[in-house]
Amino acid sequence: MRGSSVPSRVARALQDMIAERRLKPGDALPSQRELTTLLNASRPSVREGISMLETLGLIRVEQRKGLFVAASSGRTPLDFWTFEKGYDLREVYQFRASFEPAALFLAFAELRRSGLERLRAHAEALHTAAREGNAVAAAEQDTLFHDIIFDFCRNRLYQDMRRSLAKVMQDSQWVPMVIIDRVSDTAREHSAIVNAIEAGDQVAACKALEAHILAAARRCNLDLSLQTLPFQALA
C-alpha cells in the first residue's frame, strides 16, 4: 500500500494538534510559515495539507489573519465546496458517475488479477478511519482507493484526464466527509465494489461504483437519481 504523502502528513499533524490541544472553533493555529518549520515540510506541502483540512471542514483560512479551527455545525458539505476553477459540484458528480465506472470497466480484468488485495486493504483502512472518526485518514484512503482504479486502467487518455482533474475530483471525494458520521457509508460502498470485483461480476462492480458516486452526491444534498447514467441501464 502507498505511504502517506507529505501534504497528508501535514494534515494529520494539524488534526492531531487540534485534538491534543483541545482547540475549539475560532481558536488560532500556527501560521503557514511556522508550520513549515514545526513540521519540517515545504510551503507547497503545508498549503496542500491546509487545503485538505479546509475541504474537510476542520479549519478555515482568513486572508491576512491566519488559520483557525472551523465550526462545522449548521453547515452542509456543499458549503465547503470552493473549488477555484468554478466547476459546480453537481457537474463534477455527473462527470464522475460516468467517467469512473467506464475506467473500472476497462481496468476490471487486470485489477481483479493483480490489484484486488490493494483495493481491499484501502477499503478496510477506510472502515477503520470511519470507526475512529479520523477525517484525514478517511480522505487519504478514499483517494488511494479511487487512484488504484486508474492505475490499472491502461487507457492513457483516461489516466491523463484523471491527472489533469485530480484536484477537482479529489475535493469532490472529500467534501462529503465533512459529515464524519457518514464516512461509514462510504466505507460500505467501497466494500461493495471490492466484493463485486472479487466475484468476477464486471457490470455489478461498475454499477456499485456508480451507486457510490451518486450516494456521495446525495450526502451533499445533490440528487442525481433522475438521470439516465450508463451503468444504471444495464441489467
UniProtKB/TrEMBL annotation:
Cited InterPro entries: GntR_C (IPR011711), TF_FadR/GntR_C (IPR008920), Tscrpt_reg_HTH_GntR (IPR000524), WH-like_DNA-bd_sf (IPR036388), WH_DNA-bd_sf (IPR036390)
Pfam families according to UniProt: FCD, GntR
UniProt keyword terms in alphabetical order: DNA-binding, Transcription, Transcription regulation
Residues in HTH gntR-type domain copies: 4-72
SMART domains per UniProt: FCD, HTH_GNTR
Entry-linked PROSITE patterns: HTH_GNTR
Gene3D superfamilies hit by this protein: GntR ligand-binding domain-like (1.20.120.530), Winged helix-like DNA-binding domain superfamily/Winged helix DNA-binding domain (1.10.10.10)
Record-given protein name: FCD domain-containing protein
Species: Roseibium algae
